[in-house]
Amino acid sequence: MTLKNRIFIVLLLFIPVSIAADLLEWGPLPLFATSALAIVPLAAWMGTATEEIAVVIGPSAGGLLNATFGNATELIIAFIALQAGLVEVVKASITGSILGNLLLVMGLSMLLGGLRFKEQTFQPVVARVNASSMNLAVIAILLPTAIKFSAEGIESQVLQNLSIAVAIVLIGVYGLTLLFSMKTHTYLFDVGVAGMESEEEPHEEGSGNLRLWIGVLLAATLAVAVESEFLVGSLEAATEQLGLTPLFTGVILLPIIGNAAEHATAVTVAMKDKMDLSVSVAVGSSMQIALFVAPALVLAGWVIGQPMDLDFNPFELVAVAVSVLIANSISSDGQSNWLEGTLLLATYAVLGLAFYFHPLT
Amino acid sequence: MTLKNRIFIVLLLFIPVSIAADLLEWGPLPLFATSALAIVPLAAWMGTATEEIAVVIGPSAGGLLNATFGNATELIIAFIALQAGLVEVVKASITGSILGNLLLVMGLSMLLGGLRFKEQTFQPVVARVNASSMNLAVIAILLPTAIKFSAEGIESQVLQNLSIAVAIVLIGVYGLTLLFSMKTHTYLFDVGVAGMESEEEPHEEGSGNLRLWIGVLLAATLAVAVESEFLVGSLEAATEQLGLTPLFTGVILLPIIGNAAEHATAVTVAMKDKMDLSVSVAVGSSMQIALFVAPALVLAGWVIGQPMDLDFNPFELVAVAVSVLIANSISSDGQSNWLEGTLLLATYAVLGLAFYFHPLT
Amino acid sequence: MTLKNRIFIVLLLFIPVSIAADLLEWGPLPLFATSALAIVPLAAWMGTATEEIAVVIGPSAGGLLNATFGNATELIIAFIALQAGLVEVVKASITGSILGNLLLVMGLSMLLGGLRFKEQTFQPVVARVNASSMNLAVIAILLPTAIKFSAEGIESQVLQNLSIAVAIVLIGVYGLTLLFSMKTHTYLFDVGVAGMESEEEPHEEGSGNLRLWIGVLLAATLAVAVESEFLVGSLEAATEQLGLTPLFTGVILLPIIGNAAEHATAVTVAMKDKMDLSVSVAVGSSMQIALFVAPALVLAGWVIGQPMDLDFNPFELVAVAVSVLIANSISSDGQSNWLEGTLLLATYAVLGLAFYFHPLT
């Protein structure tokens, strides 16, 4: 059993602890901290279960499952926050997930991989297709904000309608990128599910385990939902106690909690010189957030009557745009070294400082 | 005779119909629709005549003719709108021509070409030279707007003077790009006039036809001017009846009318796997709009006393900037596939939605 | 002796003339002009002395010396202006140095080199590493301005704190880029000090000259400091007499004075088809300004009690961002021709016009 898995098992202990924190009313800060720590291993188990099921049910259906459940943790946390009316926190966590994947995860991967290997290479074609998709996503979230600024007094209903229309286009494009990578141009992406698989310990054959893994997936999903309720419920009071703004919490803290397992995978494989897989995890995940999770939340908000539009805080917009810009610029040549990783991390640090100092409450 | 040409001949019937609509006062909407439909085949005939003349008078003078008359239809429509004082519509149609060429035409070409051929390639060098020229153009139209925003209370005369100075620089650069592509670095552009030519039916040799084609060119130009008068005269009333803003009309409708013939060419050659020519038509046309048509209109407006500056609506600016960004990102590697075409079309759709919802009147 | 060196010797005569202008109170304009002309050869001597010392003390220490003193002239002028409280002029000169290196120097090099050689090539890897560093720098100076705009009523102390934190990150990154280019990945940069060296006349061997060159360096540095006092002291009155704004002076005039010697080197080597060195001088110098000189001035201002934040005028920000964008787009393919040089120069011209017309005082 790897070190990573041992840590995850220890972290599972925080599930009962967080339940105790809730029942015994230990206060918001302990509840926030323990539920956050409990989510990390649950997210990892959800990921493992999804991949095991994907192997059994075959590449097409499995790929689709992976593509839908890949960011399930973020989706659950965000949905519960949306239900609680924390629309700004939801937007901030979308921003932060994109930043985290493109800058923190890819940066750490390139830095730690680059300390071992002088130069690492990966398929630039995949990076470029993803880069163009990310550009589209940035444009999509830029437009409602740009409209709001260039047309004073615009009704929020108009922004809402535009956001729904744009969300439908984005989900459609996401579906087409799946078709592209799984059906028509699979040869470009031959590092995907299979590569991810071979990273894990060899798994037993046969569909006898299918029921087991479906059970694990359901249990982990339910547990994530419960812990997310704790997390969201204690979020505002806890971060206030810590002297942090909701913006900082949403952009920096939440995404680290939701993505910890993926981060570990991306960095681990980078240190084994499998940069194709590492870049694919980081960029693919941020693309999934932008083209699927964010629009899905817009549509969900519309359905449950908690309207969420794509009109992001201009500062978040700037942060996403510059992250996509620098990540594209660094990944487009299909080569990486430790300095490129450092530049991504420095960008993350600079953005983190800016969000820390940003007075928006 | 190709299907395309048959459609164009049928559309010529709208010339007498639009004249009837004007004389018999059928109202703005029929006049707008019929004159729009009449312009499509006229633009195609202007294009054919220009190319035929270009073949006879040789590559240098012919290339220059093509470069000047390539967007003659847009120039005529815009000039007549400028004379009528519709400065905002003119700016919107410049924006829309750039968007239409980079996103709609290139997107459709890459999508339809990509459905036939798994991967299509083209000279990335040409795409890159064009990309840098488009960047310059975006910068040029960005600056007056940026000045206006960063210096409150600036006199419009100063913006006008700056716009004229910038327009002169842009036209100079346009002249130099012609020198580059036709004199000093022709080998990079060996897909230009000749490639375009070979697409058409074999044309008769000899300069006997020169007079004929000059006649056709003059007749078509005059007819376009007449129809543009109808179009511009009925524009405001007709679009109001349709519930569209002048902004949407200028950005989306007018450019489709003016560019329909070019669109058809670019898509047709893409489906024959001649992506070099297809990309060259789309990107070259948007470059011509930005470096020649727009500055020419600024200078023309100055001469005829209808001052037009380069201070675009910030939302149009954002739209042009993101279009150039994503088109450059997709075309810079010299490869295309159906997904890249789809991403361009999705960007066009998202921008179109935004212009549709934009409340600017 | 080369023509360049003869011109520099003649220009040294302006040192006594400027002193006379100061003592005899000839007025601000003569003082400004003569001190400006005196700085040009002094900057060149500082550069030569730095390189000679670098050769003697070996590549590592020498590279570090070069990296620190490479933009010493700009640093001295800016520091003296900062002491005098001309914070806006300092920021403008940082903007202008970046613009000047990326657009004017690289543009002239590519244009004049391209007139001699049809196509010139250089290592795209170096250009890309620099491009990503410049992107980081643009992000770093963009954030304080973006915060200011998105959070109304933010206290200037917060911006100051953020600027100091960001400055420390940038200087750290600068140190790491030196480590990268001088220690871990030297083979990518084998055109640096050595290439620069071989451009000069053969220099005498032995460390006997070390003292001489240290003396030259100290004397030139002192003289630059004196002349900078004259320059800064007369700047406001002189430019007002010329009808120029402090913004235009800072962005266009000061950087040309401080960088004249480097400009000459970059252009000279480009005409000898050593584009690797030429691009490296231009892009490296702008990177040094952004990652070292600007943050050093923020920290220096904090120490001497003349607080300077990184909150640039939005128009300067736009200018830097678009310069980096177009320079990256042109240099990323490792090829250049005269048209690409022209495009950079046209961008410089357009920006220069905008700064000329910008009414900011």
Poorly predicted parts of chain A: 192-202
The tally of domains of chain A stands at 1
> Can you count the beta strands of chain A?
2
* Strand/helix succession of chain A: HHHHHHEHHHHHHHEH
Which descriptor suits the 3D outline of chain A? globular
Radius of gyration of chain A: 20 Å
Strand residue content of chain A: under 5%
Mean pLDDT of chain A: 86
Query: What does the largest sheet of chain A look like?
Result: 2 strands, antiparallel
Oligomer: homotrimer
Total number of helical segments of chain A?
Answer: 14
Helix content of chain A: over 70%
Cα separation of the termini of chain A = 44 Å
Name the largest protein-protein interface in this structure: A-B, 38 and 29 residues
**How are the strands ordered across the major sheet of chain A?**
1-2
Structural class call of chain A reads: mainly alpha
Q: In a few lines, what is going on in this structure?
A:
Chains A, B, C: GO terms for molecular function: calcium:proton antiporter activity. With 361 residues, chain A is an all-alpha fold.
